[in-house]
Amino acid sequence: MKAARLYGTRDMRVEDIDKPTAGPGEALIRIHACGVCPSDVRGYTGAGAHRGSFPRTPGHEWTGIIEALGPPADDGGGAPSIHTDDANAPKPLALGDRVVADWRYVCGRCYQCRRGVFNYCENMRRAVRGGFAEYGVAPLTQLRRLPDNVSFEDASFCEPLACILNAHSGTRIDVGDDVVIVGSGPIGMLHLQVARHRGARLIVSDPIAQRLEIAKTLGAHDVIDASATDPVARVMQLTEGRGADAVIVAVGAPEPIRQGLQMGAINGRVQLFAGTYPTVEIPTDPNLIHYRQLVVTGSHDFTPHHFSTALRLIQYGIVRPRPLISHRFTLDGVVEAFETTANRRGMKSMVSIA
Ligand SMILES: [Zn+2]
Ligand SMILES: [Zn+2]
């Protein structure tokens, strides 16, 4: 089969390699689409810590069709709900099913899992990788069947959307709140759609005019061109000097983070959604947090429930990923897809494989 193989910094080649086979409790999937994630791109440009060995096939936002099933897992395998007598239980996954894969395998038994903090499972492993290829293998426990109305491309957004839902479960947004989204890339625009359904008045700040146009079509009430206007002053203007009840900083850079803290209203919540690469220290006046009673939170990854919820939000049209796809590539164009994202051209790059 054809697969993208990363050999080192900015050295990725499309090569013929052996097709994988499904082991016990696994499915072989003909991959149809895989989204380019900023974390994939950090591995490619060397901006993030390289994890794993070379060569390797990146890609975790993938979807496709089950083409073969491995033998049953030793422990009975499959998701627990599959092995139940309940007539309402979902039917087992089968050949020909369209599926999306949750790459995070969590054990359910460690300290963090037992207190429900599945995104910090102590035995977490990457159950799924290698999405920029014609075939992939995934444990059945990690797969969700796609409803008929959800396309492969849309379903590939389950992973980033799940991360966003984790952030929203830790950031209070009340009906009518003034909410600022700093950064209107694909991640900011998923935040926007979720915050919109929570009844927020939405202000989006970004230095790229094209992205602000997309923000408007997705329901932003006000946009701020951060290349020409001081976003903090503008937010104060738009909120009668109060600041924002919630700020979601969807960019991992010192200036947007500093701005995010300065925009917070009394009792405001500031969500630092993006990691910073490389790590930085930001000089900040702690009185900003103290005297305004700010709640500053972060969020990282997601739980299996967030992943399932993400698929439901897409199924019911509550979140629409399609407008966020700006570039489409074939597998042979995967290097260009990565370069496009690395250079922040457009929004989301999607690789269509079948
Ligand atoms: Zn991702
Ligand atoms: Zn665990």
Overview of the molecule:
- The protein has 354 residues and is α/β, with parallel strands linked by helices.
- The protein has 2 domains: 2-162 and 302-352, Quinone Oxidoreductase, Chain A, domain 1 (Alpha-Beta Complex), CATH 3.90.180.10; 171-298, NAD(P)-binding Rossmann-like Domain (Rossmann fold, 3-Layer(aba) Sandwich).
- Helices cover 27% and strands 26% of the residues.
- The chain has helices at residues 38-45, 111-114, 152-155, 158-169, 186-197, 209-217, 231-238, 254-263, 287-292, 304-315, 334-342; strands spanning 2-8, 11-16, 26-35, 61-69, 98-101, 104-105, 125-126, 135-139, 143-145, 178-182, 201-206, 222-225, 244-249, 264-272, 295-298, 325-330, 348-352.
- The strands form 4 sheets. Strands 3, 4, 5, 8, 9, 16 and 17 form a 7-stranded mixed beta sheet that branches. It has a 6-stranded parallel beta sheet with strand order 12-11-10-13-14-15, sandwiched between helices. Strands 1-2 form a two-stranded antiparallel sheet.
- A hairpin with a 2-residue loop joins β1 (2-8) and β2 (11-16).
- The chain starts with a strand and ends with a strand.
- Mean pLDDT is 93; it is low at 78-83.
- The structure holds zinc ion (ZN) (2 copies).
- One zinc ion binds at residues 37, 39, 60-61, 159-160.
- Small molecules held by this entry: zinc ion
Distance between the termini: 12 Å
CATH class category label of the largest domain: Alpha Beta
Number of domains: 2
Strand proportion, as a percent range, falls in: 25-35%
Radius of gyration: 21 Å
Fill in the CATH topology of the largest domain.
Quinone Oxidoreductase, Chain A, domain 1
* CATH architecture type of the largest domain: Alpha-Beta Complex
Q: Look at the structure and give the mean pLDDT.
A: 93
Number of helical segments? 11
Q: Name the helicity range.
A: 25-40%
**CATH superfamily caption of the largest domain:** Medium-chain alcohol dehydrogenases, catalytic domain
Low-confidence stretches at least 5 residues in length (pLDDT < 50)?
78-83
Largest sheet: 7 strands, mixed
Shape: globular
Number of strands: 17
